[in-house]
Queue: 2 jobs
Job 1
Amino acid sequence: MNPIQPRAHWLDRMFSPHMLLRRAVMLSLVFLLCEVAGLRVYTCILCGTSPDGQPVGVLAVFLTGFYLFFYFAFICAVPVLLLASLILLTTKRLSKISKTSTETDHEKQDINSVR
Amino acid sequence: MKHAVLLRALGSLIALGAAAAIWFPAMHLFFRPNMDDYFAVKSGISPKARAIAAYQLDLWKDPGKRTREVARMRTSNAEWDFMGRTFLVLSLANMALHEPDRQEEYLKVMDRIIEETIRFENDKGIYFFLMDYAREGKFSSDQPASIFIDGETALMLGARRMVRERTDYKPMMKQRIDRLVKMMTKGPVLCAESYPNECWMFCNTVALATLRISDVLDGSDHSAFLKKWVATAKTKLIDVKSGLLFSSFGLDGTPLDGPEGSSIWMVSHCLQIVDPSFANDQYARARKELATTVFGFGYAKEWPACWRGSPDIDSGPIVPVLDASAGSSGLALIGASAFKDSVYLKALITSLNFAAFPNKQNNTLRYCASNQVGDAVILYSLVNGPLWDKVLRAKKAS
């Protein structure tokens, strides 16, 4: 039994293009939900203003933090995840193509040498 | 196997790094404003300014809405209620000068704001618009008087009268002006208190601008006093390292706070009609010490490198690492627009679109991360110009 294997598997999964894409979609969906729920109005807490005229409570602070986290994730992280998965998919495809063409070249060489 | 997995993970990290290197410098392009939407090309009001104004005017047409909006601000700071009025009146004065056709509509709201403000002050006293700690000390004058209240009230009256004279406002303004001069000349550094033994540069320069406006309106002459004030400020109220004016100090001029972004942008704007070259000098120094642009996003720090203060209600929250201050960045819009600093102004509006959370509804616009006073400041930065120009033209003519 190789103790390294599960960790390696986890690393592979974590950074796969599909996993990056899935994370981007997940973050976008949660942010969309925050927008639909109208959490944007809670950002007034940032300038020390109460959302409803009552002293700011724990729930309001939590909702502000929640919205801000997903807003910045949507603006800053989602495009990075999408671009990274695109780069990874492209490099994978390119390496596959070059691998295939190298293999084809080798096969051609083998056929020629047999002839 | 292990080696291959690690290599693949490293490759992915490099891809993430490359993606970040592409995205972050390009991100501002998605928030960059079309400046024609914010500033009218020749005259008139830009679409964004009109939308912000529509929201603000709605508040003065719907008492219930206004009460809610004011209550939201007063839970943390009663001053904002007052300053929100000042900045809205200043904005409307500029808009009225931009758009003579709609003057009547704007003047109506300006009058309503001024009358209600003075009524509240008369009925509830000056403490109604001050923070609670004002009651803890004693004003130096026999009767509690704050240059914050008198200066901005006189400025509102003056702005209104600059658009169109209202004879009943004349004695009301004169009474305030006389009190301002009396309070200021009594102080050893020609400044008066906003709070007990607390002089704020913001309030004192607002008062100076008001004196200049009263000279234009009523033919008085405060030029000797204004000259003396600038000379005193240059020697006694300036931080030696940055060359910027202190934001607050005791009656004798002992600094309480050093130079602050939440003060200096408006201070330099007010000085434009008092001493334009000193105003330019202060703006240039503030720009050098406080203005920052990162990846196309502009913001302002609250303190210069040589002076460190602690965050308060004026600075707003400070973003760690960047040192960006919400209060300073908001008021920097006024500075940048007043001094026609278009590059910085564009960068600031880019940040506004990114981090102030604009909310458009039925042709109105407000910023969720802001409040009524913040939005009024933004509106003022988008329409300011004609009022100060009129004062400067009149001064030249005289």
Job 2
Amino acid sequence: MRRLFPHPYLTVTLVVLWLLLVNRLALGSVVMALILGTAIPLITARWWPGTPPVARPLALISYIGLVIWDVIIANLQVARIVLFMPTARIKSAWITVPLDLTSPEAITLLAGTITMTPGTLTADIASDGKSLLIHSLHAPDPDAIRDDIKVRYEARLKRIFAE
Amino acid sequence: MILDLLITAALIIGGAFALIGSYGLLRLKDPFQRLHAPTKGSTLGVGAVLVASALAHFARGQGASWHEVLVTGFIFLTAPLTALYLARVHLHRAEPKPPLPSPATGSGWASRDLGLENIQPEREKE
Amino acid sequence: MIAYALTFAIGCFALALLMNLIRLATAKAPGDRILAVDTMVINVIGLIVLYGIKTASGLNFEAAILFAMTGFVSTVAFAKFLLRGNIIE
């Protein structure tokens, strides 16, 4: 089993991607998707160093739901700032977020989440990989934003990646 | 009828957010502030339009359409990467350098420690 | 009702594209120009999808996906060129 599917997540992604591309759920498409999903990971296995350490895939789905909801709220907030706040009164700030996560996959996911959610944007990572540099559009209280990120997103990611 | 209302709402929301995102690009003064408006506004704008498209496809009785999911997923995956790259470009080229806080541990931020500051584009070197 | 909303949305996206064009023409830093072009790409994807709703055809989605991909790759290539003076290292 392990030798036939060296990267199970990649196989699932490829199958779903192929079915989305052909846009119909016929038997032929499913067979083709399974062939591609098996063959591509086998051929490219040498270039994939390891599997992402996802411990709770179901928690990942609820996390994606939470992020989509936050993206909508984020947009309303940013829209209010863009439309109504005088540009001189927008207080931008640079914030350092110390990381408890260690795996590159988890940090990448956290950085992407931060960029998509309320008024914050990941700009850089520390050279030792233990903190993120974040730019906030309007931050009267930078510490609150940092704590919010740590509690709301990082704690959940920690559970998902079982660190 | 309800489907029609949903499509209309999604279309109006999408158009409004796209407009706000681009308006923010014009209005905000600081280059880093300008990164915020399009990455969030335009992405949700296109997302809402894609929802409208999926609903319209369904309303025409042609069954579910999955291409929308693909485009939405792709845009939402790539928007943070674009923003990260552009933030680095701004950090690299900003004069004077913005006052960055130092990281919790370690010596500095990755793009500075890599010596990116000292690399000049090939053409400028000659 | 949908027809009016569709016209409104197309108008919004067209206006947004115009704003991006102004930004592209007036921006001073190259980073801002890349951002303007990237926003333009996203808005064009929106327009393509809206046209697909208007003509009730699913054929436009291939164009939208291709646009999303080439837009992303070109933005990253531009940014990388400005950062490193080199695209493929």
